[in-house]
Each structure stands twice: as C-alpha cells, then as structure tokens.
Amino acid sequence: MGHSSRPNQYQRKSKYRPWDGFIGNLTPLGHGVSGIVLAIDEQRVAKIDTGSLRSLEDIETEREAYRKLSNPGCPYVLRCYELDNPNGIVLERCKDTIRKRLQSHYNGKKPPDNLVKKWVYEAVQGLTYVHRRGVIQGDVGCHNMLLSPKNDTVKLADFSGSSVDGSDLTVDYEFWSKLPGSDEPSQVADIFALGSTIFEMSTGSPPYENKSWREVHGLYKRSEFPDVSSIRHLGPIILKCWNQKYNTASEILDDLENNSKLCLRRMDSNTSEDSFDEVEPSSSQNSSRQPASRHKYGSTRQCKDSHTFIGAE
C-alpha cells in the first residue's frame, strides 16, 4: 500500500493513538472504486485501498489533496487525523450524507428553510476554502457532503478523484450536476454542480431526477433549467451557479452575506433542526474583523486564505 515519505506536518493534531493498520476487528461502512471505509471507533474511520492500481492512485490523490486542505484546515472540510499512515488515511467519522438525511428524514420532501440555509452556508464556505487551497473537488453533491455527529455541521468529503494544483480529475459529476462541455477541472464546473446541490437541499430531490442523462445534458446545453421560483431566497443563487455568473465560490458567499434572510445562528446540541434563528450582528464580535465576519452562526474561526469560517464545533 503506497504512502508518501513527506513529513506529517500537514496532518491535524490528534488526541488519538495512531491506527495500527489492523482491520480484522473494524466494521466496514462503505466502499467504492477509490477504496474501502472502515470504522476505527466512534470518532474515526480508515480509508484503505482495494489493491487495484486505480484505488492506489486515488488514495494517493486524496493524500495530496489533504496536504493542501489540512494546513491550516477548515471546519467545513472533513478532518484528516492521519495523513501519512502507511496503512491508509484516517479521517473524521460523521453520520449521514446530506442526501441520506434528505431521504431518511424528509422522504424526498422539502426540508425546513432554516436547515437548508445552514447547509448551504456551510457548504459554500467549505468549497471556498477548498478552491483557495488549489483543489477542485470534481464531484460536488449532496452525496459528498457529510454531517458531523455534533451539530450536524456540513463537511465536504471525498477528494480521491480531485484535481490538485491543476492535475487531471479522475472522477466526474453526477449527470444532473455536470456543466456541459466541462472536461477540464475548473472552479466554475464545481460551482455549477453546487447549484444542483443547493437545488437538491432545497427541494429534497436532484434537478431533473426522472430524466435520462441524455435529456438532462440537452436541457443544460440549451440553458433550460428547472423552475426555482418557489425556492425562497436561494433560487437566484442557484440560477447564477447554473448560468456561470460566479467565477469563485467566495462570490456566492458575498451574495449570502448581503441577504439578511440568509444569516443564521449556529445550531447547538440542544437546538432542533426546525428552530434556527435569524439574528443581527452580535456586539461581542471583534470590531476589527473584516466584513467577511458578518457570518452569524455564533463563534467565529479564522482560516487562512479564505473567509472567516464559523459555527463549527
């Protein structure tokens, strides 16, 4: 199993004993082309290769991505505990993906508005950070956004097929999230997929869910997108993602910040998903912060090379 000889200065400090690589007592949680995910304990998982060349390459790509993303790190990107463990990558363990949550809790129906706003705000902050660190995720969607055990914080995940500093993508978007003609990795392609992701968050289903990939591709090529008029506050942002009006994810953050209806307080462990409060700026915030600190989830945290990231546990 391949691993890098680089020093482990990039990985997050961990209070846990390093994983010894023994998998006999670990519970499988999922698997795919890129690897197998095993539960180490309630807080950590191990992602290991399947033994195929493709899997080995994908695991190495994810290591390279996390070398960029773990320094300094962002609360809206899945945490890496052990980057250079020769047995596999040790990552933060989460609960559901957003898609699984939509299916299990809302059965394809529209979730509460304030929950959707929270998800969108955190996902956009995560993608802003990922792009500013030189990574194109390449498969942005509700299936690759996890929810943390505490507070259901959104965590962008799965960088095994991503582009790092301009490298080729080895993964592709779901067909309802793919920008027609986008064969090269780009922020705009990720943002187009983010538009479809926000649509799914807002409605409970992906855009054009019941159409074939050929039909969807043709519709997108003609710039014929689903009606978003019923999606309060977020509809215009979705359309701007689809119509390639944003060059960077940080521009989406600007739109979110400039709409007071999209500023929410962070959900704590005693708050239900239906009871987020819209709030005004807190007087306790540091007045010397830049305007990006208008994010209103409560406690703030500054990540280098990005906006002010907030609300993570």
Low-confidence stretches: 1-12, 265-302, 306-313
Provide the CATH topology of the largest domain. Answer: Transferase(Phosphotransferase), domain 1
For the record, the CATH architecture of the largest domain stands as Orthogonal Bundle
Query: Based on DSSP secondary structure assignment, what is the total number of beta strands?
Result: 11
Determine the CATH superfamily of the largest domain: Transferase(Phosphotransferase) domain 1
The oligomeric state of the chains shown is single chain
Query: Largest sheet at a glance?
Result: 5 strands, antiparallel
Q: Estimate the mean pLDDT confidence.
A: 83
Number of DSSP helical runs = 7
**CATH class group of the largest domain:** Mainly Alpha
**In order across it, which strands form the biggest sheet?**
1-2-3-5-4
What is the share of helical residues? 25-40%
Count of domain modules: 2
Please provide the ordered H/E string of secondary-structure elements.
EEEHEEHHEEEEHHHHEE
SS-based class: alpha+beta
Q: Indicate the radius of gyration in whole angstroms.
A: 19 Å
Proportion of β residues?
5-15%
Distance between the termini: 33 Å
Global shape: globular
